[in-house]
Amino acid sequence: MALRAALRSRSGLSGLLSQRSSCSSDIRMCVSPLLVPQERNYSTPPKIRVEFDQSTGVAVMHMQSPPVNSLSLDFLTELCISVEKLEMDKSCRGLIITSAQPKVFSAGLDITEMYGKSPEHCGAFWRSVQEMWLKLYGSNMVTIAAINGSSPAGGCLMAMTCDYRIMADNPRYNIGLNETQLGIVAPFW
Ligand SMILES: CCCCC/C=C\C/C=C\C/C=C/C(=O)SCCNC(=O)CCNC(=O)[C@H](O)C(C)(C)COP(=O)(O)OP(=O)(O)OC[C@H]1O[C@@H](n2cnc3c(N)ncnc32)[C@H](O)[C@@H]1OP(=O)(O)O
């Protein structure tokens, strides 16, 4: 109850959504093996920014990978590490995921990860996709997607793995699954 009240009263969620629409206890103590070799390259700016409010127990995760928060291997790795860190912090009970990019929540899987890559890279990429939705779907935190822009395909998948979805009311923002239109078939796993 306290968490829900906190979520409701936080300027965070309502602020995030109105801002965008107006412009047009299992603590895992180890990092998963998938994530170990994928440490962030510190020569590039972080793709994920997390603000954790100790007083409410709510973290806001801002996706900030220009131009459209496409889900690349690097992006997904960073996102999974951030979720794991929050998951390990017992005081974090709620997670709001939103976008720092204008008009787009996430464009879905990064198309450039799907051609001209080695089989090893493709394997790592698809594992990271799976890791992302398993982590969010299985999270002990209350998870909310604050969808402040378009969110096709993998962006929709990510939102679907959260407990709640709230989308900015803007007719220009699309959400849904368009894989068939693109001729993409998700591999068996
Ligand atoms: C719970 C159980 C689950 C089990 C598993 C189930 C299913 C399998 C899992 C997932 C399948 C998912 C597949 C995918 O996600 S495939 C990707 C599909 N995505 C799209 O088709 C989105 C395409 N993009 C858009 O529609 C638009 O770009 C936008 C997001 C609406 C934004 O429009 P806007 O006009 O603002 O920008 P631009 O179109 O001009 O784009 C700017 C810039 O970004 C590049 N870009 C866009 N999308 C992607 C992308 N997905 N990957 C890589 N790059 C992308 C675009 O090319 C532009 O680049 P430029 O260099 O030209 O500036």
TrEMBL record:
Q: Does the keyword Phosphoprotein apply?
A: no
- Pathway, per Swiss-Prot/TrEMBL? Lipid metabolism; fatty acid beta-oxidation
**What Gene Ontology terms describe where this protein resides (cellular component)?**
mitochondrial matrix
Keywords from UniProt, A to Z, are: Acetylation, Fatty acid metabolism, Isomerase, Lipid metabolism, Mitochondrion, Transit peptide
The GO annotation for biological process reads: fatty acid beta-oxidation
Under InterPro entries, the record lists:
ClpP/crotonase-like_dom_sf, Enoyl-CoA_hyd/isom_CS, Enoyl-CoA_hydra/iso
**What biological function has been recorded for the protein in this entry?**
Key enzyme of fatty acid beta-oxidation. Able to isomerize both 3-cis (3Z) and 3-trans (3E) double bonds into the 2-trans (2E) form in a range of enoyl-CoA species, with a preference for (3Z)-enoyl-CoAs over (3E)-enoyl-CoAs. The catalytic efficiency of this enzyme is not affected by the fatty acyl chain length.
Task: From the Swiss-Prot or TrEMBL record, give the protein name.
Answer: Enoyl-CoA delta isomerase 1, mitochondrial
Organism the protein comes from: Pogonophryne albipinna
- What is the taxonomic lineage of the source species? Eukaryota, Metazoa, Chordata, Craniata, Vertebrata
